Amino acid sequence: MEIFRAPRVTxxxxxxxxEPEHLKVQWQGQASGGERLAEYAxxxxxxxxxxxxxxxxxxxxxxxxxxxxxxxxxxxxYVLLIEGISRSCSHELVRHRAGFGYSQLSQRYVxxxxxxxxxxxxxxxxxxxxxxWEQQVTEAQAAxxxxxxxxxxxxxxxADKGHRRKMAREAARSVLPNATEVKIVxxxxxxxxxxxxxxxxxxxxxxxxxxxxxxxxxxxxxEAGALFSDFEIYVADDxxxxxxxxxxxx
Length: 250
Hints:
Elements: E1 3-4, E2 8-13, H1 33-46, H2 57-67, E3 77-86, H3 87-93, E4 100-104, E5 117-118, H4 127-154, H5 161-172, E6 181-189, H6 190-200, H7 207-223, H8 225-228, E7 231-235, E8 241-245
Parallel strand pairs: 1-5
Antiparallel strand pairs: 2-3, 3-6, 4-6, 7-8
Helix pairs in contact: 1-2, 4-5
């Protein structure tokens, strides 16, 4: 049985910027495709492709964030594979709707006999709590396996083996804990990501989704730093990482 003690975030898709030949920008500095796209969209609004202020892309986007003109950030969409989070955490994540798309592992179709589990941050480091928690999830997984086998026998009259397995798993999943690990592909534009990060990276957020949000922030800052440069990661009073943002709800 695999136990996750931290999430795993992988970038799986990024914007590709294709600059029109007839409306080129006088670019300054280096930038990623998503950063260029956001700047280009902003400059089209004022036909300022000649870059009168001579700003680099990072400088231009810093001013965009400062002024709160977040609509141009909606063009840059980033897709992440997030693993090592619990179903409890994913159910918090999918509450963010505007600008987001989700594709999540289905317990109805996937055999969870060898599912992984996610240890809550509050338990980490306490040997007694960790041992008790591991015993509980082990027992829950064993109950799932027993229930699936019993239901497969009960539904032996169902000729379609695939449908029979689905019927068994959809009922047996009820005994699995919220700590069961899930894999989820999440797409969102940069503005939507920023809103989620502001809400979930803060010290008031639930600990597991806060841990996940900080991991997402690190991934996005590495990919498109100019779009997320005003977020600062720090260690909070509870000794866990959190993040704060300079420009609120861009």
